[in-house]
Design a protein that fits this description.
single chain, 224 residues, alpha/beta, Rossmann fold, Arc Repressor Mutant, subunit A, five-stranded parallel sheet, four-stranded antiparallel sheet
């Protein structure tokens, strides 16, 4: 899943990006509210973490703009304040949850998981395509022959493919969704991860294949 983190304390932002990356999230980090709103309006995110106190535009204003434009993505607010009024205003504007700094890493991750569950029902926690299943909670890709726990980007690519069986996904789409706008990675990295996934499908003796359409992208083809 891809998150936007808007936090103007750069040391805290770097720490959170590392923590979230280890928990299988892809994170784009910005440092002020105007940039946060720009990213959220042009990017494709599964959720956002917004600090309330930011330069140029505060987190509450960013949230207000999002909701006014019909964007219902999950939003977690971070605040150094403990005043009830800030929390109430955030929830009234449509925030899914809030967390007061300083906070424990485990609590942050638990609140993000809970927040994302408002978007994904329990019945969707396991994706299925052909003879494959992908557990979104454990990151395990399984067939009747066994299972693999996928690494972060492998999991995200397989999730995209299994959510769109039979549909072409371009290399550019993979790059935008998984690596993010500011990545220095070459687009060839998509092929590298597709190769990793194909080897795992072969080891699982799956009849489901990842096929390439030259210069167009990749699709998951299910053998019925």
């Amino acid at each position: 899943m891809r998150l936007l983190l808007a936090e103007d304390e750069k040391s805290l932002s770097r720490a959170l990006v590392t923590i979230l990356g280890k928990s299988h999230y892809t994170v784009d980090a910005v440092y002020d509210g105007e940039e946060a709103l720009e990213y959220l309006e042009t990017g494709n995110y599964d959720g956002a973490i917004l600090d309330i106190m930011m330069p140029k535009m505060d987190g509450l204003t960013v949230l207000k703009h999002l909701r006014q434009r019909g964007n219902l993505m999950p939003v977690l607010l971070l605040t150094a304040k403990s005043e009830i009024d800030d929390k109430v205003e955030g929830l009234d504007l449509g925030a899914n949850d809030y967390l007061t700094k300083p906070f424990a890493t485990k609590e942050l991750l638990a609140r993000i998981r809970a927040m994302m569950r408002t978007q994904t029902s329990q019945s969707d926690s396991i994706l299925r395509a052909g003879d494959l299943s992908l557990n979104r909670a454990t990151f395990e890709l399984s067939s009747g022959s066994g299972s693999f726990r996928l690494a972060n980007k492998e999991f995200q690519m397989m999730e995209m493919l299994m959510c769109n069986p039979g549909h072409l996904i371009s290399k550019e789409r993979f790059m935008e969704k998984i690596w993010g706008f500011d990545s220095d990675a070459e687009i060839s990295v998509v092929w590298v991860y597709i190769s990793y996934l194909r080897k795992k499908l072969s080891a699982l003796q799956s009849k489901t294949e990842i096929k390439a359409a030259r210069n167009l992208g990749y699709s998951l083809e299910v053998d019925l």
